[in-house]
Amino acid sequence: MTGSAALLTDRYELTMVDAALQSGTAERESVFEAFARRLPEGRRYGVVAGTGRMLQLITEYRFDDPELEWLRANEVVRPATLDWLADYRFSGDIWGYREGEAYFPGSPLVTVQGSFAEAVVLETLILSVLNYDSAVASAAARMSSVALGRPLAEMGSRRTNERSAIAAARAAYIAGFDATSNLEAGRTWGVPTMGTAAHAFTLLHDSEADAFRAQVEAMGPDTTLLVDTYDIERGVATAIEVAGTGLGAVRIDSGDLPTVVADVRRQLDELGAVDTRITVTSDLDEFLIAALSGSPVDAFGVGTRVATGSGHPAAGMVYKLVARRDDAGAWVDVAKSSAQKVSVGGRKHAVRRLDGTRTAREEVVIVDAGEAAPGESGADAAEATEAAGRSQTERDLVVPLMRAGVPDERWLGPDGTRLAREQRAAAMQELPIEAFRLGAGEAAIPTTYR
Amino acid sequence: MTGSAALLTDRYELTMVDAALQSGTAERESVFEAFARRLPEGRRYGVVAGTGRMLQLITEYRFDDPELEWLRANEVVRPATLDWLADYRFSGDIWGYREGEAYFPGSPLVTVQGSFAEAVVLETLILSVLNYDSAVASAAARMSSVALGRPLAEMGSRRTNERSAIAAARAAYIAGFDATSNLEAGRTWGVPTMGTAAHAFTLLHDSEADAFRAQVEAMGPDTTLLVDTYDIERGVATAIEVAGTGLGAVRIDSGDLPTVVADVRRQLDELGAVDTRITVTSDLDEFLIAALSGSPVDAFGVGTRVATGSGHPAAGMVYKLVARRDDAGAWVDVAKSSAQKVSVGGRKHAVRRLDGTRTAREEVVIVDAGEAAPGESGADAAEATEAAGRSQTERDLVVPLMRAGVPDERWLGPDGTRLAREQRAAAMQELPIEAFRLGAGEAAIPTTYR
């Protein structure tokens, strides 16, 4: 990579700016909305992730000389448009769901208000971040909900693009994973990192015992030894011989896990290693984790399936112009209206209706909130309903994320990542029990438009 | 992102180095191999992609002060290991399949030879690149093979991580796509870029005619107008009214495509716009492209399904230690041997056996090539067979990619990307016709070990 992130975008975002600047429509104040028309096939809920990364990327979004020069040389836009791009800084407002929030079809996840030109330029970047991160978080949340409190580690870096891997580790952490193998995610986002050794380390040595000795000498007996390179039973025996009964954990990466795990637990107990934990890491997904709910597994490592969204590698979010001013300054709601992919025009906010047990019952999308910014009138509505009695409440879902180009700092960096993880935990508490069924089905709560 | 790419790796790669340095095994000369145990479910062949990116990343792989400081502060490895990492430069040899080559289960795609420590450190990075890029290229090649020569554009940037998007555009181009929407892929890899306008541009204007006029003024009548914002028939009529019969193309992004495309072609011809092309871009994949083989479509734009590998977002490649020297300097073949995920130990090279019509019939993996580096004895074998008569030939598949840390420049940058695209075209020519059936089935040719 050379230069800034400005060219992480589709060419048509810039050609639209070019044409709009020429026709005099570029400065029309506009509202764009990112939402998912539907959940991935069979899913009951989604988890919003990427918001903190998105805010950071938008704040830093600049066209520097190398980008401008490349656009000029390739005649992507006219020279006048290059001048406009050179001055580009997003100066508008963004509202949206808190990172870590649950979402449903039609939930207005991100609302961007600014001039048409400054808001349209961000489309590709916003969707790239939200679609990938939310796909990973939505899959990871399902895994987390069936792990029954046992720690989950994300180790899918090798199964996704080298830079996606960082985002995947962060999204999985937000969705309830406890650690990652990815060191850059540790550095950039503060996600705890883990990992000890692979089969190659055992094969490098003249014997399994040599390898285990080398590892214990370097990492201490509290390490995790990988015991399935040759024969698991022999591997476990050797591990305890070498490390003693204080060995931290054994890792199993192959075999029929329910059987193998039970055998290894029995063997460890017989050897007196009653506190030695068992970690499993063999092509796991939410279904295999659930199938191990009765097994004495102490921790799970998940690779491919979490980093690729467990069958749904993109969350399917779109970014649509829903309102813009006309020349007289009046707001006009807009939406595509031909046969398919119809959208609901108008600025929106949203509340989640909770019953007396604080269980979510309905996603209410309030259309055409008019001049009131999302998250402002909504808060009042929620309080008013709550004051009327504890039987039902409406929780406001849309909060300000950026004001006049300045992001809400709370969502940025490692602190923002932790905040998103807390938000996800709170949002999961509210979902009805049907949301956690792994089998295919409808969204756990209906979305209605008010 | 701050700093170098050194932390795009799993923690255990560094803890293995740490333990091996301490136990004295780190310098054992080793051979690692990247391969796929199987093709993704139902696929007939795969396309290798990412090699050029991988060589570049390996060449630049360095631990700079910020990375070393983070590793120190987080106690990932011992101080002595930090010194080793500070001096890290890969100085070994790499052989592998040419980028763009077809591959099958067990094909030795990349072979890395160096000290254990210097080769193991690259595992995560090599697999991240190969697994994602090859997943995209393998899906894109299927789309390319059913497009019957009509141009394909990759436009999936918004459906994958913002940095993956660049790699996806490159991989799709290698696999036969003609252009991408992604500007950074244009800048970094020389992939032609395309794109004009989205529905938002039409909705921004007071009428569809206003929007089309603005676009034609900015981009000229040879542009592509998106005609399905309101009503397609009206959109086509307006497009020709505004741009004239010299309009470059209309784009259709929704509706029942075979019907809609036929209607639009008829309408364009009746209006005299006989040279105006029709581009379709509505949630396409290889099956929908094939279903349009009889329709008057002139170009396809593919998004989600190409950038996410059309159901298989990771190619499933692994990186295994297959041989290493012992203390006496003798080579020892090694492989995991417990119940599952068994590997074939030993250094390998490979040839593709072709019949008299130069159609591929067998992938021959030659195990334990001994001291001879892959790609050296293989070349001789191929020539000898060819000299014996034209009835069968064996084409050598493994070539040197890096010698003593210096990459073969031909595979780097935009030139390397073009070379890979040519290689892919040549490899496709050789595949038996069964390889191009879209339905699920076995690998098109068997892999045998010699």
Structural write-up:
The structure is a homodimer of 450-residue chains. Chain A is of the alpha/beta class and 450 residues long. Helix content of chain A is 38%, strand content 19%. Chain A has two domains: 5-136 and 312-449, nicotinate phosphoribosyltransferase (Alpha-Beta Barrel); 155-305, Aldolase class I (TIM Barrel, Alpha-Beta Barrel), CATH 3.20.20. Chain A contains 16 helices and 19 strands. A seven-stranded antiparallel beta sheet of chain A has the order 13-12-1-5-3-17-18. In chain A, a hairpin with a 5-residue loop joins strand 12 and strand 13. In chain A, helix 2 packs antiparallel against helix 6 (123-146) and helix 3 (65-73) packs antiparallel against helix 4. The first copy, chain A, is globular and about 80 Å long. Chain A starts with 10 loop residues before the first helix and ends with a strand. At the A-B interface, helix 1, helix 3, helix 6, helix 7 and helix 8 of A face helix 1, helix 3, helix 6, helix 7 and helix 8 of B. Chains A, B: Residues 375-389 have a biased composition (Low complexity). Chains A, B: Belongs to the NAPRTase family. Chains A, B: Residues 372-394 are annotated as: Disordered.
